[in-house]
Amino acid sequence: LVMALDGSINRLEAAVLVGLVIAYTVFLVLQSRRASKAIEDDFASDIPTSNWDRHWSVQVLLVIVGLGLLVLGADWLVSSAVSFARAFGVSDLVIGLTVVAVGTSMPEIATSIIAALRGQRDIAVGNVVGSNVFNICAVLGVTGLIAPGGLPVSEAARNFDLWVMLAVAFACLPILITGREIARWEGGVFLGYYAAYTAWLVLAAQQHASMQAFSGVMLGYVMPLTVITLVVSIVRHNGQNTSNQ
What we know:
single chain, mainly alpha, 2 domains
């Protein structure tokens, strides 16, 4: 957010982001090496085995083919998203925040759901946290290094969307603190807010007459009630911890 305030992410700032994700990855590797043998065995059981595991040449070939298909799919996704934006008369930013974001997040959603259903909740949460750290640091960093003149950040993103991202990150803190788990109603709140955010983007792009009323309801009623609910949850959680002690 601070780097984007001047309207772009220059190459120096992009290099800092890349350095951060490298440092974060090194920290995770060093931390995992210090883990106990029981934890290592627990996570090792989650890794699928394959008849090709011993053939490194096949693995390298699969990585190359996978990266090639990934680049091809990304090109198709961007081209289709641009055509979609022009057909419906909305900005590329709105399409990136909705269609492209949902499309690129589908593998993460599938991984987290499968992990949660299998009881591997650490993997579900780690997948989400890790992907967000990688998207912010690595994706923006590498793109800023490659893009000539830096990576421009639109005024709309600086004035609204980046602040929404920051608010969501802060909203996760009390939810994760209370019981250190995400309850179903808390997950429903996040899902509802994403639906409201998407609706706001569509209404704003079309300059719909109901956008002002929609914004008033969200800012005047829904968001304050959510804040009050989260505060009450934190107070109750602290009270339970005090009584248990």
